[in-house]
Amino acid sequence: MFDAIKKLFQGASLTGSSAGGSVCGIDIGSGSIKVVQIKEDKGRIILETYGALSLAPFSNEAIGKPAKLSEADTVKAITQVLKESRVTAKNFVVSLQSNAILVFVVTLPRASQTQLDTVIPNEARKYIPVPLTEVSLDWFIIPEKETYEQEVTAPSPTIEILIVAVRNETLQNYQTTLTQAAILNPAFEIESFATMRSVLRREIAPVLIVDVGTGFTSMMIVEYGIIRIFHVANRGSAFVTESLSRSLSIPFDKAEEMKYNASKHPEIQTLLDASYEYLVSEIKRVLLEYEHSQNRVVSKIILSGGGSVVQGFKELVAQQTGLETVMADPFAKVDAPEFMRPLLLTSGPEFSVATGLALKNMLSF
Q1: Residue 85 in contact with residue 50, Cβ under 8 Å?
Q2: Contact 208/219 with Cβ under 8 angstroms?
Q3: Measuring CA to CA, which residue among 333, 212, 340, 233 is closest to residue 281?
Q4: What is the value of pTM for the model shown?
Q5: What is the pairing mode between strands 187-190 and 91-96?
Q6: Looking at 49-63, 92-106, 134-148, 214-228, which range is the least confident one?
Q7: In whole angstroms, how far apart are CA 42 and each of 16, 37, 91, 280, 358?
Q8: Distance between CA atoms of 28 and 73, rounded to whole angstroms?
Q9: What CA–CA distance (Å, rounded) separates 22 from 42?
Q10: SS3 content of the chain, % helix, strand, coil (to 5)
Q11: Distance between CA atoms of 350 and 331, rounded to whole angstroms?
Q12: What pLDDT, on the 0 to 100 scale, is given for residue 9?
């Protein structure tokens, strides 16, 4: 039933995309829906349109808060953002939220494909808190690193496997909602994989990608295009706004406005930094876990998501970790008019997932 996501590590077949048809990535987040439409033409990847729509008004909440919408309101929101962004594509790739999936790496004895088909579900039971009948599993053997030594060494007796689990109920809900929004036969992809595709530049050394969303923050260390560590913190940009609101005794919407215009309110910078302490401590914990488990260090941190653009956050992360810290620039991978570049550079982190989704069949990691 869920053939579109049966192989989350493989590109889905999109009708017309190979012939220059337009593709739209739809990032359904906890606070907003973002869309990016691109097309491939004579070897060029062209940005056609993009847009975002806050979900909070649909649930009578202040903009910036996570929204729990009914199925009917979610359909309305999807339909509205597609219309307002003037999306014309017939091919869609839709995100699966990182907090709705499990990603983990296991080490197993080297075995044949047939043996692994039996062993992996048994091993996955140790990590998945629900019966396996309630989830869809996918897995990928992590390639061994190539060396340049002349000496031929025997293959390792063990292999590492990246496993992804998604609840069937989650997939069914997505399918039902999208069908009602007249989005038929969409491809699906975990948002973290889409982010990797849009923000990485074929880095060789390990990189930590931090995606700050409205309700949660995902962190993943990627090495040679493979996720080595995946972690979700249940705090995002809304928590920062709530902390600011409580500290200043002001409404949430006022705190949200001040947060994204901190240059006009220098007196709140200390409060903002304090609100990000938890996320920074989680970032440092993930870095330490990787260093201890892999005996290697991360070379760079890439910040993504709308919550990452708050003034001072990048500088705080760089100061606390001692690592080069940069903002995601997903639109650098598409052609667009030069006059739009400053705007695309500023808005890029918010559209990392949607851009990566649209690029699914056009770029590899």
Answers
A1: yes
A2: yes
A3: 233
A4: 0.87
A5: parallel
A6: 134-148
A7: 14, 17, 19, 43, 17
A8: 13
A9: 13
A10: 40, 25, 30
A11: 11
A12: 47
What is the pLDDT averaged over residues 343-349? 93
Strands 226-233 and 158-167: unpaired
By CB atoms closer than 10 A (0-12, 13-18, 19+), residue 66 is buried
Alpha carbons 108 and 162: distance in angstroms, whole number: 11
Say how far residue 29 (Cα) sits from the centre of its chain: 10
Average pLDDT, the chain: 88
Rounded distance between C-alpha atoms, residue 312 and residue 269, angstroms: 7
Residue 78: other Cβ atoms inside 10 A: 23
Amino acid making up residue 65:
K
pLDDT band at 208 (very low <50, low <70, confident <90, very high): very high
Kindly report the CA angle at 32 between 27 and 36, in degrees rounded to 5? 40
Please give the sequence-ordered ranges of beta strands (E in DSSP) within the chain, or none if there are none: 22-28, 32-41, 44-54, 91-96, 101-109, 135-141, 158-167, 187-190, 207-212, 217-223, 226-233, 300-304, 324-327
Which of helix, strand or coil describes residue 93?
strand
Contacts of 100 (CB under 8 A, 6+ apart): 166, 167, 170
DSSP state, residue 237: H
pLDDT at 302 over 70: yes
In the numeric block, which tokens belong to residue 289? Answer: 């876990």
Q: Read off the DSSP letter of residue 267.
A: G
Burial (CB count within 10 angstroms: exposed 0-12, middle 13-18, buried 19+), residue 147:
exposed
Q: What is the pLDDT of residue 17?
A: 40
**187 phi-psi bin (left φ>0, alpha ψ -120 to 50, beta other):** beta
